[in-house]
Design brief:
Length: 174
């Protein structure tokens, strides 16, 4: 009686801790520039095991900018964690990136924050990152920008490992 409940709780905890795919760039503070390389990044170490490859789509509700969702990468593997992408999109606001099931594009796995595509020649967003030693560095979010694993992502991955170890320990006792 106790074992089925323990397995259900363990599975729920594992799914809650290790089941969040998040698009981190572009975002409301990190934009793309038409015709120039921009960073497309996501939390690859927190994606559910079933979401190993997806189609990358771009959407915009303004039909003067984009008449429908458009596939920009047919099959993107999760393990890359980020790619450089050169958007050929009209400058404007209201864009979002969607990670969708490659076999069913209505099955959306992740949606970015709304972001802007700026005209060719615009400056990239300036971002800063802190290290665990407390030092802070500044870089641009364009081609030189790299995805970094945040402390929260590391915590999620560590917690997922702990839950997996606990579940494995319970199985070993049985």
């Amino acid at each position: 009686m106790f074992l089925p409940q323990l397995l259900i709780v363990s599975a729920a905890l594992l799914g809650a801790v290790y089941g969040q795919l998040t698009i981190t760039s572009p975002s409301s503070s990190i934009w793309w520039i038409t015709g120039e390389q921009g960073n497309l990044a996501w939390t690859c170490n927190t994606a559910p095991a079933t979401e190993t490859t997806w189609t990358v789509m771009v959407a915009n509700p303004n039909v003067q900018l984009l008449t429908d969702e458009q596939a920009i990468v047919a099959e993107q593997p999760n393990y890359d964690c980020s790619i450089l992408f050169t958007p050929q999109l009209p400058a404007g606001t209201g864009y979002t990136i969607l990670f969708v099931n490659p076999l069913n594009t209505s099955d959306v796995w992740a949606t970015s924050e709304t972001f802007e595509v700026k005209p060719t020649g615009s400056a990239y967003a300036v971002t800063s990152a802190s290290s665990s030693t407390g030092s802070t560095g500044t870089s641009t979010a364009g081609a030189a920008g790299a995805s970094q694993t945040s402390k929260a992502e590391g915590l999620h991955a560590g917690a997922a490992g702990l839950v997996a170890a606990l579940v494995g320990g319970v199985w070993a006792l049985l």
